[in-house]
Design goal:
Elements lengths: L1 H6 L3 H21 L2 E8 L2 E8 L5 H15 L7 H6 L8 H16 L9 H6 L12 H8 L8 E5 L2 E5 L10 H18 L5 E5 L2 E5 L8 E6 L13 E7 L2 E7 L4 E4 L2 E4 L2 E2 L4 E2 L4 E8 L2 H14 L1 H10 L4 E7 L5 E5 L6
Antiparallel strand pairs: 1-2, 2-5, 3-4, 5-6, 6-9, 7-8, 9-14, 10-11, 12-13, 14-15, 15-16
Helix pairs in contact: 3-8, 5-9, 8-9, 9-10
Length: 341
Amino acid sequence: MKRLHRKYYWQIPFLLFLIIGSIYVVRQKQTAPFHRHEGFIFGTVYHFTYQSEDDLHQELIKVLHDVDNTLSTFNENSVLAAVNRGENPVLTPMFCKLFREAQQVSEETEGAFDVTVAPMVNAWGFGFKQGRFPTDDMVDSLLQIVGYRKVSIKEEKDGWHLCRPDHRMMLDFSAIAKGYGVDCVADYLKSKGVTNFMVEIGGEIAVGGHNDKQQDWHIGVTKPTDDSLQLDKSELQTVLKLTDVCMATSGNYRNFYYQGGKKIAHTIDPHTGRPVQHSLLSATVLAPSCAMADAYATSFMVMGVDKAKQLLARHPELKAYLIYSDEKGEYAVWQNLPPNN
């Protein structure tokens, strides 16, 4: 027995070194400060909170600008803007990656998500805010240049290019690009060894680890009240306790305008070319990536409650908190969130 003990004596210093080293690393992470940044990007506000010995704000800004220079509809120098001008630019790896992800969601949602719906959105007064109803003939005409299956990307000698049957076809990544930007920032933080963080861009969120109180991150879901000017941001429907997950919310309650006594919602059904009209008021989605959460939240606003529930049953990796108007016109909730929420 004594010989057996002596055999392992040499391992004791090594084990002590590992234990002390682990304690040191944990203490370093616990004592590292939390940095907080906010600013303006993608036409909206961002908030970053993360625990690190280093201030990474400038590096994170560069990450955001890379996304903006590729996917922004309003940045005239972006790759997407060139595509929408009818040009034929070489597509970047980032553009191709997000295009493929968007097409995947389009297939899964049977076209409820469609990045080619941009001309229709603009016609209804969003995007470029034309502020007038399109006629039935105009809608029927625009439907001819809408449809995710009509576009693809193809590798040529000088790189990847967009293939489309009509140069008037336009792409709009706004329902997935903010989420993708969140993913890019979160991935950069992880690459720097950051485990505790909250990244939020225009309401799309990724969280990792814990907050400065060593708790899960507390993220609010706004109550869907008619507030097109977004003046009241304080009333919450619920607060979710989250860690190591991404979240996005889509809703018509803040994005609409009145014309002729009618409330016109911003969510356009790619199948009909017209604003959706159903009981779903707000869709909050939890997913492994924020791009996917963003895209599916938008899709659910097109699909409505019943079809959204059917898709969620096929995708256990997705969780949702759906707020809708019941038969009495009162708020109702359906959810399949984890038990701690």
